[in-house]
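Running log. JK asked me to keep both predictions on one page so they can be read side by side. First protein, sequence followed by its tokens:
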Amino acid sequence: MATTTKSKTTSSAKTTGSTKAAPKKSSKSASGKMEDSEFHEFFIDELKDIYWAEKHLVKALPKMQKAATSPELAAAFEKHTQETQTHIDTLEQVFALLDEKASAKKCDAMEGLLEEANGIIEDTDSGTMVRDAGLILAAQKVEHYEIATYGTLKVFAENMGHTDVAELLGQTLENEKATDVALTECSVNFVNQAAAQE
């Protein structure tokens, strides 16, 4: 009988010991952030993807500005170039808040969208509103990709407890939405009608 009791006591001690060790394996920190989780790693990977996208977009926009026919569209591209640089700076803040190095990973989607924009410039005549209509189409495809990306990353950040990061991503998201609206107004107000008459 004494042996059985001793065995139960030893078993109980082992159970208690394993319970104390369990919290060390948790992927959540005291703040609730999931730094070591697969979801967090995926989040960082997608931040690197959009960082690459923004860095390449800021180089492509001046070419689109130069190709634009109307002064209004050229001005819109110039403004968006400045805003895109701000988005890059914001992403670098996000990386810093997450204690990550700001690094870019090739974004196949943005590469394809920018190639399409180049194709539109090559396939349309300089000084035409048809070209402007095409440039707006290309730019809005870029905007919709960015809106989808920033919207999703903002929600990811919220779910992991990165409220400061979510706020920064939300600011960029609202800016992307405003740019999309501005491009639509440019298109509807005069570009499409002029293009249809050429």
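And the second, directly underneath as requested:
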Amino acid sequence: MPNNKDIELVLLKSTNNQFELDIIKGLLEDNQIPCLIQEKGSGGYLKIITGSSLFGSDILVERSQYEKAMELISSVL
């Protein structure tokens, strides 16, 4: 397992659509590609309170998984 110092996250996709976010996240999980969802602005707080955000989300993956992840989402979206 790599050290935290060895992990480099890169932006896979930004989205303002919760449905698209859920599809991509599920697709990555099904293919054992870890991802991190980073909310923009105060979007994380808005999601807790209202269930959605106007600010959007960034989907980040480890650099070594980027090409595989892009191929997967390109085939679906």
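Observation for JK regarding the second prediction: The chain has a mean pLDDT of 84.
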